Sequence to fold (129 residues):
Amino acid sequence: MKVLTIKEPFATLIKEGYKVYEFRTWKTNFRGEFLIHAGKSIDKKAMEKYKHLNLNINPGHIIAKAKITDCIKIDDDAKKMLSKINKYEIYTNSINSKEEKLYGFKVEDVEPINPIEISGKLSFWEYNL
Fold:
């Protein structure tokens, strides 16, 4: 099954249902089920920003199964839409501090799983669940 490594706390924000888009500088044609891997890297500013949520993060673990149902280009219209749907939709962060092409992978049907410890990789990678 495909896996995507996502920096914490963003992986957990998706797992907990706070965040429904994952943002990347590359687009994907992939649609379907995948596993969410919480990367070992932690965004400390974001952890502070979301400390009121009392997130239980699991860096270095696969933490959920979900589906990617769409990939949108983040332009001005997309930014307006995102700001209306969810305050946790962060389309600029520490890995993307300058204006670049950004894409949002819409993540739905998220199901938390018992964490599986494993090292992550860049882009999509494979893991047999």
Residues 64 and 112 are 4 Å apart (CA to CA). The first strand starts at residue 2 and ends at 8. Helices lie at 10-15, 44-49, 76-85. The domain at 2-126 is CATH 2.30.130.30 (Archaeosine Trna-guanine Transglycosylase; Chain: A, domain 4).
